Amino acid sequence: MRTFCFLIFLFALSVNPEFCYSQNESKDSLANYTELLWFGGSTERTPFWLQSNQFGIVPRTSPAGSIRVGIEQYFNMTEEQHSPWKVGFGAEAVANFSEGKKILFPQLHAAIRYKNWEIFIGRKKQWVGLADSTLGTGSYPWSTNAMPIPKIQLGTRGFVSVPFTQGWVSFNAFYSDGLMDKNRPVTTELKLHQKALYLRVGRADSKVRLYGGFNHQVEWGGKTPHNTLNNQMPTGWKNYFNVITGKAHTNTPTVFDSTGRVGNHLGSIDLAAEFDFYDFAIFAYRQSLYEDGSLIWLGNIKDGLNGIRLRKKNTLGGMFEIEEVVLEVLYTKDQGGPTADWTSRTHRGKDDYFNNAQVRDGWSYYDRTIGTPFIPPTSDTKWKWPTYGNMHTSNNRVSVFHVGLKGTALEQIEWSTKLSLSTNAGTYDLPFEGYPKQFSGLLALQSRVNFLGGVLIKASFAADIGDLYPKNYGFSLGIKKDGILFIR
Fold first, then answer.
1. CA dist 252 to 235, 273, 420, Å?
2. CATH number for the domain harbouring residue 281
3. Domain count across the chain
4. Residue 278 is part of which domain span?
């Protein structure tokens, strides 16, 4: 295995194009890349920050090797040089070699664009919610922790000005439907409905910009043996309308559907403000969580993700410089209290985040939590705490203090860190004894070198120290280069 990965590494050094692949913005030219990585550590478990928020493509066990290839291309649909109509595609393949071989396709989509609007079908990497997506812990309901879910989506690409507001009011929105993974532990034929709407007050170049909006996700229409008639969850167009609007199923033989919502609903209501100064910019945000209705009555208002990002605009490129700082606090321990009484406005608690009595495999995709990685699946490697039945997670009451930093050193090295300290309480029905604490840290380095036309050399070092996961130290080494596909 080690010999194989070493040979692959040498092969990568023999190819010659330049890296220019973007995950969230495609240019009107061919972009393709190749990346090779090697993971190792003091135990067989890959440390938390090496595998979390990586779109589900980093193996949970090490040692492991990974080969990644990506391509993205958009074409003008008319003969105009700057045509507003474009058509394109994106594809990314990942081959992992650890205990066995596994091929993943985190991106595989086709799209049509008109100005700032886009419709696409397939898998596509996305960031949803008002939160930092690079140095932070990730957006609470939809982080980058799991593989992208295949769907069809219509929406905007960034903020679009509302007519007659001269850019002072803009919106960013999408509407989509997709399919969950087939081989889930409990449910089958499960569907996804997702939408989001965000408003911005202030022009793109304003000194102060205010943001607000929501995202809404629903798992629905599948088959499960829990709280259903003949194992079938509500389906059909009438119930699809109930899924969109969040209404209960009023004509159903099961109490679960008639007293709750059709499917497993969750999301966040987000607020943010951005301040643009001469030397630096500040972005402050708050995500309030909803899942079982407690937020309507402010029952779980204590829970949420709070963050602030400070980013320098002018860098000197000296021996050592900090260019960006992110501070976050994630709290999910309240959940509206320990009592779930739907006849009471003040006791609609026990929200049991990312778990659901029908969808027992919960808010997950291929056994990875779709939302924040700090609410992990019970199946996580070397889990040693009490198991909460056959629910997705046994630990959704957590508090996390997180620091992310990014900068440069020696003028050519880019570095970043993620440092997280969490306290974990399990669930209301099955609490952990002693509230185990956990520290997870990451130091990542990368530098572009003038070798074989230019390559990006990468190295990361990570550690897990605490009572939740086994004590562990790990690393990754990689090289990233442009054009393994030899297409110009």
1. 11, 44, 45
2. 2.40.160.130
3. 1
4. 110-221+263-479
3-class DSSP assignment, residue 10? helix
Token pair in block for residue 322 = 């900090």
Helices and strands in the chain, H and E counts: 4, 21
pLDDT mean values, one per 10 residues, the chain (488 residues): 36 30 38 92 94 95 94 89 91 91 95 96 95 96 96 97 96 98 93 98 96 97 91 91 81 59 93 95 97 80 96 83 97 86 63 94 96 93 76 96 96 95 95 94 95 88 95 96 60
Q: How many residues does the chain have?
A: 488
**Which amino acid, one-letter code, is at 36?**
L
Task: Indicate the pTM of the whole model.
Answer: 0.89
Strand 64-76 and strand 85-97: pairing?
antiparallel
Amino acid at 171: F
Q: Tokens 């880019």 — which residue?
A: 414
Residue 468: inside a domain = yes
Give the three-class secondary structure for 487: coil
The contacts of residue 100 (CB under 8 Å, 6+ apart) are none
Determine contact, residues 264/218, Cβ cutoff 8 Å. Answer: yes
For 58-72, the three-class secondary structure string (H helix, E strand, C coil) is CCCECCEEEEEEEEE
Pairing of strands 398-409, 280-290: unpaired
Note the pLDDT of residue 109. 97
For 257, list phi and psi in degrees, rounded to 5.
-75, -35
User: What does the alpha-carbon distance between residue 289 and residue 365 come to, in Å, rounded to a whole number?
Assistant: 20
DSSP per-residue string spanning 206-275: -SEEEEEEEEEEEEES-B-SSSSBTTB---SHHHHHHHHHT---SS-S-HHHHHS-SSEEEEEEEEEEEE
The count of other CB atoms within 10 Å of the CB of residue 375 is: 25
| Closest of 23, 135, 43 to residue 463, by C-alpha | 43
Q: Do the domain assignments include residue 273?
A: yes
Give the three-state DSSP class for 303: coil
Domain membership of residue 465 (yes or no) is yes
Burial (CB count within 10 angstroms: exposed 0-12, middle 13-18, buried 19+), residue 429: middle
Least Cα distance to 400 among 288, 297, 307, 301 occurs for 307
Largest CA distance in the chain: 69
Q: How far is CA 88 from CA 79, 92, 118, 150, 193, in A?
A: 16, 14, 11, 17, 24
- Identify whether 338 is part of a domain: yes
